[in-house]
Amino acid sequence: MAGDYYAALGLSIDATPDEIRSAYFAAARRSHPDANPDARTTEWFLRVQEAYEVLGSARRRAEYDATLPEGLLAQPEISVHMRTSRPAIERLPEPQLLYALLEVNCTASAAGESGVPVHLAFVVDRSTSMQGERMDMLKASLTQAIRRLKQTDTVSVVTFSDRAEVVLPPTRVSALGKAETQIYTIQTGGGTEIFRGLSLGLEQLRRGAAEDCLRQLILLTDGHTYGDEQSCLALAEAASQEGIGIHALGIGHEWNDTFLDALVAITGGTTQFIRSTKDLAAALDQKVLTASAVYARGITLEFQPESAVALRYAFRLHPDVGSLAPETPLVLGNLQRAKGLSLLLELVVAPIAADADALQLFSGRLKMQVFDRGARRARLFVDVRCPVSDLPDLEPVPSAVLEAVSRMTLYRMQERARRQVEAGEPDQAARQLQFLATNLLSRGDREFAHTVLAEAEHIRNSRVFSKDGDKRVKYGTRALLLPSGMEPR
């Protein structure tokens, strides 16, 4: 297939010779038979070798590029815009804060979304705690969601407790027939070992996987896993390298949100808090519907730290609200057709030299795999410079940046309250939640404000969050902070 050599090395078509060389050595290490016991390793390794033999030679690369369809050389239908909280930076003798709002929008029509082939692997917790109504709810919602997939999509189902098994192997939806009834044979029992489920689920996604297929693993669990967290995180790292996204649906209040958030963040995925049958059905439907609408997957933002500027905090506003580790690369997830994603960066600017008239604030590149004419690697550059002024900037902060900072501040209030409870400072945590409730009231969200105030009172009396209070506050705040028009479908 045209473009295979670039895809084999995970490169965009405009890759430099140094990037080709680095990508080859990294891919060769991952795919060498001595390092990877997978049965297909030899095939992968030979493909990587062949790709480098062509792309590593200027002459052979030019000949190969001449055979590619013109569409593969086109820029992706994506616009990138970064706005700062001030158009100019005041020259000051001390460090100062600056905010930058990065907006990435897909300009491709939503009408093209049906062309993206999807393979969804559902990894279902069937431990004893899932028995009864909870499992019945899950079976019904999962069956309903699968029926929403396109006939050309692929689905697989894995269950786990203290062991894992395949309930439905990778099957084209058009060939499902009555095979979906296998879901109703799931029986509960045993403990919770997420590693077993993840490992087997990823194995299904790798079977017969095509480069132009969007692969996502959806984990459904209601409990903690014990002792295998680091192994799970390692699996997520491998999945990210392969372009596989991991999403999690936490059912009830016993699951470990800190662990699941860390797990899915590695691949740019999301975690959702499921409290009812309605929540579960809506969440699964959303996963199915949004998967088909993906235009670019695995978007990362690599940046070069500037000597005078440090990234202190990174906050994703959409498509999922939450903080990101302020280090390169930032994993942003997927971009849907005719949709956008937004990211707020909190930058600390060092004292500015007397002779400086401009400052490089940010230099980076967005890397992704684009689904527009098959699947191809692409990248877009982000470069932001600000003039330096000796006078205070009296212009108002752009409204979009101001709104983004306001949303981030609300989220950080609940983050701070959680940390204070963990540090044995419940009174400070209660006050933090009161501040949050006051802000929610000012925004007109009275119902959630009362929920937050009730949790503050519980913390003041019991010194801890209620059983599901921390999740209600955390994920309730996330849902509220989605910009207007960007709420989950």
Explain what this protein looks like in three dimensions.
This protein has 489 residues and is an alpha/beta fold. The protein is built from 14 helices and 16 strands. The protein has helices at residues 4-8, 17-31, 41-55, 58-65, 70-73, 133-146, 194-206, 229-241, 257-265, 277-292, 399-422, 426-442, 446-462, 469-480; strands spanning 78-84, 89-90, 96-106, 118-125, 154-160, 164-172, 214-221, 244-251, 271-274, 294-303, 309-318, 322-324, 330-336, 340-349, 358-370, 376-389. A 6-stranded mixed β-sheet has the order 6-5-4-7-8-9, with helices on both faces. Strands 1-3-14-11-12 form a 5-stranded antiparallel β-sheet, with helices on one face. It has a 5-stranded mixed β-sheet with strand order 2-16-15-10-13. The relative contact order is 0.13.
> Sheet bearing the most strands, described?
6 strands, mixed
Topology as a string of helices (H) and strands (E):
HHHHHEEEEHEEHEHEHEHEEEEEEEHHHH
Strand order, largest beta sheet? 6-5-4-7-8-9
Radius of gyration: 24 Å
Shape: globular
Q: Helicity range of the residues?
A: 25-40%
Going by helix content, strand content and strand pairing, the class is alpha/beta
Average pLDDT across residues? Answer: 87
Number of strands: 16
As residue ranges, the low-confidence spans are 484-489
How much β-strand is present in the residues? Answer: 25-35%
Seen as an oligomer or otherwise, the chain set is: single chain
The termini sit apart by 35 Å
**Total number of helices:** 14
